[in-house]
Amino acid sequence: MPLEALRYDVTPVGMHYLLTHFDVPDIDGATWKLRIEGRVRRPLDLTLEDLLERPSVSMPVTMECAGNGRARLSPRPISQPWLNEAVGTASWTGTPLAPLLAEAGLEDDAIELVFTGADRGIQGDVEQDYERSLTIHETSRPEVLLAYAMNGRPLEPQHGYPLRLIVPGWYGMTSVKWLTRIEAVSEPFQGWQQVDAYRYRKDNGERGEPVTRIRVRALMAPPGIPDFLSRRRVAPAGPVTVIGRAWCGTAPVVRVEFGVDGAWDEAKLEEPVGEFAWRRWSYDWTASPGEHVLTCRATDAAGNPQPLEQPWNIEGCGNNLVQEVVVTVD
Ligand SMILES: Nc1nc2c(c(=O)[nH]1)N[C@H]1C(S)=C(S)[C@@H](COP(=O)(O)O)O[C@H]1N2
Ligand SMILES: [Mo]
């Protein structure tokens, strides 16, 4: 998502970031089915029509890729080289998952649900479907959706048509696209995307902690205009209102500060776009001639501010380093 799109409460579909491990699968919505099976008393086969007939909920949700910001880490983790653009807020429409689980009747020994996408590929030398699991406790939360629409229109192929999971507050890898199967299991899922990826680890021998919810972060829409090659910003001297967004998946954002050459001041915070969506912030800056380093820093209700130095991990996950924008004011 180009950072100037931080101006929108809801990101236009074509400006929302994309992360696709393998290929966008070829799915015919007319013949596609979702199967709910495993440790359930009544396995379900649902067509897209069945899902559309169920109660529907629309909700703005800020989604961020767990690797957002990794291209700036050193040593550079080998994966999608995101700068700061892997975030967006869409209005997702779908049917809540919890009532479907109740209909299927989870067995007492079910501990997790495994969500399978229709996309297949090879990662870490393992051929696999894209699959992730989540505990029954997390999947039973009322905000967890099986979504078939984004910003009021059917999902685009690249965003998971015909159906995807949306798990508000969690990093994006959890929200499995192109869903074909939900399996209730009685043992912790050992799939590649669960145990070999999305872990906080300093080296490969370590098992590490799983990557889960989104850490607190603020980003600004860089003021002025960009220089084509360097992407440095150039702005005229005088008053300018810098705007941005702040979000967090573990606790509400309660504060955003704006920094000019290392001096912090309070930014103005607006109401969140939704319970699981970002809040707009702004700062009235008077730009004086010269070169300036602009920064922004959010703090969540648990008192966690964004770090000024980013702890490193192998996959470059969970980055929430304070953003720095260099502006030449003339
Ligand atoms: N089936 C499937 N689901 C997936 C992925 C994928 O590659 N395959 N990528 C995940 C990751 S890493 C992210 S960040 C989000 C991105 O969703 P988007 O492309 O709609 O923005 O989808 C998640 N769901
Ligand atoms: Mo991601």
Structure characterization notes:
The chain has 330 residues and is mostly beta strands. The protein has two domains: 3-210, Sulfite Oxidase, Chain A, domain 2 (Alpha-Beta Complex); 217-329, Immunoglobulin-like. Helix content is 7%, strand content 41%. It has four helices and 22 strands. It has helices at 48-53, 97-104, 136-139, 192-195; strands at 33-38, 44-47, 57-64, 87-96, 112-123, 126-135, 145-150, 153-154, 164-166, 179-185, 199-200, 209-210, 217-220, 225-226, 233-235, 238-247, 253-260, 263-266, 268-272, 279-287, 290-300, 323-329. The strands form five sheets. A six-stranded mixed sheet has the order 14-15-22-21-17-18, with no helix packed on it. The mean pLDDT is 97. It binds the ligand Nc1nc2c(c(=O)[nH]1)N[C@H]1C(S)=C(S)[C@@H](COP(=O)(O)O)O[C@H]1N2 and molybdenum atom. Residues 19, 65-67, 172-173 line the site of molybdenum atom.
Features:
single chain, 330 residues, Sulfite Oxidase, Chain A, domain 2, Immunoglobulin-like, 6-stranded mixed beta sheet, 5-stranded mixed beta sheet, globular, binds molybdenum atom
Distance between the termini: 28 Å
CATH class of the largest domain: Alpha Beta
The helix/strand series, from N terminus to C terminus, equals: EEHEEHEEHEEEEHEEEEEEEEEEEE
**CATH homologous superfamily designation of the largest domain:** Oxidoreductase, molybdopterin-binding domain
How much of the polypeptide forms β-strand, as a percent range? 35-45%
